[in-house]
C-alpha cells in the first residue's frame, strides 16, 4: 500500500487531480510538472499515486 501521508502535499494534490481526470492528458508528466510545479521525480510519484487512487476507488467505490 502507498500511504499518501508519505508524499509531499503537492504530489498528493497532483495525484488527486490526475486520478479525477476522465481522460489523462497525453503528456501527463510535463503537464503535471507545469501545473503543480513538481520535479520529474515528484511527477512520476504523482502518476503512481494516482494509479493507486484509481485502483482503490474501483475496489471500494
Describe this entry's structure for a reader.
This protein has helices spanning 9-20, 28-36, 40-60. It is an all-alpha fold and 61 residues long.
Summed up:
The protein is mostly helical and 61 residues long.
Strand content: under 5%
Mind summarizing the main beta sheet? none
- What share of the residues lie within helices? 55-70%
Low-confidence stretches: none
Overall SS class = mainly alpha
Provide mean pLDDT, rounded: 92
- What's the number of extended β-strand segments? 0
Radius of gyration: 11 Å
C-alpha end-to-end distance = 17 Å
How many helices? The count is 3
Oligomeric status of the shown chains? single chain
Order of helices and strands: HHH
| Outline | globular
List keywords for this structure.
single chain; 61 residues; mainly alpha; 3 helices; globular
Explain the layout of strands and helices.
Elements: H1 9-20, H2 28-36, H3 40-60
Amino acid at each position: 500500500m502507498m500511504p499518501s501521508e508519505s508524499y509531499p502535499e503537492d504530489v498528493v494534490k497532483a495525484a488527486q487531480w490526475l486520478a479525477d481526470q476522465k481522460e489523462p492528458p497525453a503528456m501527463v508528466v510535463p503537464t503535471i510538472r507545469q501545473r503543480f510545479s513538481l520535479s520529474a521525480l515528484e511527477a512520476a510519484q504523482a502518476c503512481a499515486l494516482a494509479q493507486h487512487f484509481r485502483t482503490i476507488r474501483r475496489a471500494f467505490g
